[in-house]
Amino acid sequence: MNFSESLESLRQSFIEALRVRGYSPATLYSRNGSLDLFFRYLAAAGIDDVREVNRETVRAYHAWMMESGKYKTHTVHVRIIALRRFFEHLEKTDAVLVNPCNGLYLPKLERRLPRRVLTQAEARRILDAPDTQTRKGIRDKAILEVFYSTGIRLEEMSQLTIHDVDTRNGFLRVNKVKFAKDRVVPMGRKAGNYVREYLQRVRFEWSKEKKDERALWLSPIRPHQPIKKPAISLIVRQYARATLGRSISPHVWRHTCATHLVANGSNIAYVQRILGHRSINTTQIYTRVSLTEIRRTHRLAHPRAKMTLGKGHSRARIKNP
Q: What is the set of active-site residues?
C-alpha cells in the first residue's frame, strides 16, 4: 500500500468513527477538508509516512497556514483541532505510537459575537411578511415562527416530521443531528398555533397523494415533496430581503432567539438546554450580546447618557471648557 492509499484508509477510518458517534454531516465535511489540506502539505514536505509526523511537523504546518495569508485565525484553529482529533483516533487504534499534537498549545480564541442579531422590531416585520391568505404563506409563516420560537438549527428544521410536533402542549422534538442527542424544546403559543394551522389547512391537503409521507415541511409544487435545507434557507433569506433589504441566514434566527431570551431575563442554563449546547460556555456568548444591546439602548434612552448640546454650545467648547 502506497502513501496516498494508506492516508486514505486512515482518513476513512476516522470519518467513519465520527459518523458512528453521531457527528453532523457538516462536521464530517469540515474534518474531511481539514485532513485534505494537511495531506497536501505532507506531500509537498516530502513526508511519506504518517508515523514520521512529529510535533515540529504540526507546528510548521500551523505556521505555514498563518503565514500564507489565505486562512483566518479562526479557520486555522478549526484545521488544527481537526488534526488533534485525527491523531487521537490514530493513537487509540494503534496506527501511531505517539500523538504529535499532545501538548501543542493554541492561544484561546475569543468567542465572536453573533453578527446581525435581529431586533425585536425587525423580527416582527419578517414574521408578519408571509401572506397567510395563501397556503404557501401559511407554511412560510409557520417555519419562521418555529425558527424564532425554538432557535433550532437549519438541519434540525429540515428533519422535522409530523410526529415531532406537539401543538396541543407546545413542544417540539428535535432529532439527532449534532452531538447525537435528541432533545425536546418548548414551542411558543404563536408558533404552535401557526404550525397547527399549517397541518390542518395546508399539509393535510398537500399530503393526500402521499399519505405515508412523514416530513413536516412540504413543497407547494406537486407532488409536494419534502423541502430540503437549501429551500428552507431560501425562504428565510427572501423574506428578510423583502422586509429589511438584506439577506439573513437561518442561523441568525437561532442567535436572535437566544439573545432575546437572555435579554428578557431567561436563565442561561434554560437557554443552553433549548439550543442543545454541550457546554454552558458556548451559551454564555449570548449574555455578552445582550449586554451590548442593553448598553446601546441605555445610551439612546437614558437622559443622563444622551449627548445633548445646550443652545449656543459647540462640541469644541464641551471638550475644552
A: 153, 178, 251, 254, 277, 286
Q: Is residue 114 part of a domain?
A: no
Q: Give a yes or no: residue 193 inside a domain.
A: yes
Task: Please state, in angstroms and as integers, the Cα–Cα distance from residue 129 to each residue in 68, 193, 236, 241, 242, following that order.
Answer: 45, 17, 11, 11, 8
CA distance linking residue 291 with residue 297, whole number of Å: 10
C-alpha dihedral (187, 193, 196, 197), degrees to nearest 10: -150
**Does 98 reside within a domain?**
no
Domain that holds residue 273: 120-301
Residues 273 and 155 in one domain: yes
Structure pTM? 0.61
- pLDDT digits 0-9 by tens, 130-167: 999 999 999 999 999 999 998 888 989 999 999 999 99
Examine the pLDDT at 313 and tell me if it is beyond 50: no
- Which residues, in sequence order, are CB contacts of 265 under 8 Å at separation 6+? none
The CATH number covering residue 9 comes to: 1.10.150.130
pLDDT band of 198, cuts 50, 70, 90: very high
